[in-house]
Design brief:
It is a single chain. By secondary structure, the chain is mainly alpha-helical. It is built from five helices and two strands; from the N terminus they run αααααββ. A two-stranded antiparallel sheet has the order 1-2. The longest helix has 33 residues, at 54-86. It is elongated, with a radius of gyration of 36 Å.
Length: 137
């Protein structure tokens, strides 16, 4: 293995049964891919040899299909460009970061109590019967 190559090839370090399974699986997948093309090849053979102008019909159909595909591709690109320009995007607004004063005002607690509770490793929060915070240790 070359140290200059970007491709890591460690195939020879695999045991023989794993290399055999990998090679066999690859060959089977290529065979299946070729079998998927069999109906298209049969159709082309029938079109080309059934009529004297079969080749011309085949090329005309191929070019017509290619033209339609290109027109649809350009139309899709144009629709996507218009969509980006005409429909406004929804941006996420950054909220203002809350300060300790904001929390103290919201929970009706002294600010010094919140600052000391935040600096401790263990904090106990006391609630009343309605679930509101009344004291922080």
């Amino acid at each position: 293995m070359s140290t200059q190559s970007l491709i890591i090839d460690l195939r020879q370090q695999l045991p023989w049964h794993r290399r055999y399974a990998s090679t066999t699986t690859t060959a089977l997948l290529w065979g299946a891919w070729l079998l998927l093309w069999r109906p298209m090849l049969l159709l082309m053979t029938v079109v080309l040899y059934s009529k004297p102008y079969g080749v011309h019909k085949f090329w005309n159909a191929f070019w017509f299909g290619l033209q339609v595909d290109m027109i649809l591709l350009l139309l899709c690109a144009a629709v996507l460009c218009l969509w980006c320009k005409l429909i406004p995007s929804h941006t996420v607004k950054q909220l203002k970061r809350k300060t300790t004063t904001d929390y103290a005002r919201h929970f009706s607690l002294p600010e010094k109590e919140l600052i000391s509770a935040r600096s401790q490793k263990i904090t106990t929060v006391h609630h009343n019967e309605q679930g509101q915070i009344i004291h922080v240790d």
